[in-house]
Design brief:
Elements lengths: L1 H7 L3 H23 L25 E8 L2 E8 L7 H14 L16 E7 L2 E6 L9 H15 L7 E6 L2 E2 L2 E2 L4 E2 L6 H7 L3
Parallel strand pairs: 4-5
Antiparallel strand pairs: 1-2, 3-4, 5-6, 7-8
Length: 196
């Protein structure tokens, strides 16, 4: 019986040789992996809209363009040096409230309207405007200015929910004809509830 046990033992020399081979192979694999050029990951073909702007992302302001049976919202890119979402949107809104500078695009936002505050929080954009925003124009004018605010506010995140406030109070009705403002507003809800 002692002879059988002795034949099953592995000599220390064999263990050392196997260990050296494992270390050598592992080191070679590590060396090869570290000297290979990086591979490009397989990126899906669909685009994911970021919630925060990427450096150099160009936001848009939205103007109104007449068509045969109404109005279209048309984007105009705005060059902005800021990279923080609040700063980007504040600058875009300053451009929106200043009015169009070229072409046949127009706005129905009264020129006296001021941006009193803007906050981005967890997929929501809160826009606080001066009382001038509510003055003048009929229902088409009111719907147009709501659209301009929604689309400009969602330029960084087209799926964001927008809350429009006037002098710090959530807007419920807009203008003399009383266009009801169903908040929160999204691009989808605007297209469904406020035809231009």
């Amino acid at each position: 019986m002692n002879n059988q046990q002795g034949s099953k033992r592995i000599s220390p020399g064999v263990i050392a040789a196997v260990s050296a081979a494992v270390v050598l192979v592992g080191g070679g694999v590590a060396w090869l992996a570290s000297n290979q050029p990086p591979t490009t990951p397989n990126i899906p073909s669909h685009t994911i809209t970021p919630r925060e702007p990427v450096q150099g992302q160009t936001p848009h302001v939205y103007w109104l363009k007449p068509r045969d049976t109404g109005l279209d919202l048309v984007p105009q890119p705005v060059e902005i040096a800021a990279t923080q979402p609040n700063q980007v949107l504040e600058t875009a809104f300053q451009a929106l409230l200043a009015g169009p500078t070229e072409g046949t695009d127009s706005t129905t936002i009264p020129p006296e309207t001021k941006l009193l505050g803007l906050k981005i929080d967890n997929g929501e954009v809160h826009v606080n405007l001066s009382e001038d925003f509510t003055k003048g124009g009929g229902s088409t004018s009111m719907v147009g200015r709501i659209g301009q605010v929604i689309y400009t506010a969602t330029t960084l995140d087209p799926n964001a929910k927008v809350y429009i406030e006037v002098e710090g109070e959530q807007l419920e009705f807009l203008g003399g004809e009383g266009v009801e403002v169903l908040q929160p507003l999204t691009r989808e809800s605007f297209e469904r509830n406020y035809p231009l």
